[in-house]
């Protein structure tokens, strides 16, 4: 096996529980009194004994029926923001985010800004701490347990000390053997196309009988990511050009309806086909280098708009030498 050089263009991030921790806003009441069949019972063996002393509007209500699993919204914000940022710059495989090393400075800066925002939000809550708890205790539903809330709640300093945020740190990815480096790049490239397909499917499923101009932001985010990761497969830049051509053909104000909406729907549909997407990129690359593709015409003007659509199915279904795993049905 051949040994790779030590230069690398990829770094990886991983988000773990150590990157964001907080306080649930709940406490355990040692001997809770509950009602069973109309009878009040107090017993240390009864386990339904959790009191929520933090107002619900400050809690993550993704699982409102399980108070002990609810984290403060700030912690949820940090975790989701970390993932959003890394997804914009990377391909994600098994919860590992692979980023171009040229983007590391920007990624680390955006991750740091998330923590600054979270810290500011916590400081604001500390400043309002007495008011927050007073509001909770005086709520009509909580008057009967106001003393319990006061007894089991944390002080502002105690609550603040429960939070810890740490931006994930990148590590260089340098496979020892060339064969492994090639395999990793192929896997990352495949994942890039898969993520484009997943985003396109989501946009397609959300499309109704009209669409506002928000589609431009969604597609711009997609093409920006594809451009950032084109070092994995520069053929994907042909897909970027195609998307931008479609966007430029559509009205830049108002809602898309009728013919224009159909054009956008067709674009989403085309982007949601991974095999056609990869084959289109390959064909455009061959055309640009003067190599005629062994496929049907790359573009076909059979749409209702002035923009041509992808039509890049292999002429020979068995063609796998040129398309690798993309055309061999291994998706």
Low-confidence stretches: 43-47, 62-70, 295-308, 312-331
Number of DSSP helical runs: 10
Main sheet specs: 4 strands, antiparallel
Task: Say how many strands there are.
Answer: 12
Helix/strand-derived category reads: alpha+beta
Task: Sum up the overall morphology in one term.
Answer: elongated
Q: From the alpha-carbon coordinates, what is the Rg to the nearest angstrom? A: 27 Å
H-E string: EEEEEEHEEHHHHEEHHHHHEE
* Sheet with most strands: strand arrangement: 7-8-1-10
**Straight-line N-to-C gap:** 27 Å
Q: Give the averaged pLDDT, no decimals.
A: 79
Please report which band the strand proportion falls in: under 5%, 5-15%, 15-25%, 25-35%, 35-45% or over 45%: 5-15%
Helix amount = 40-55%
Compose a concise summary of this entry.
Helices cover about 45% and strands about 10% of the residues. The protein has about 325 residues and is an alpha+beta fold. The chain starts with 9 loop residues before the first strand and ends in a 21-residue tail after the last strand.
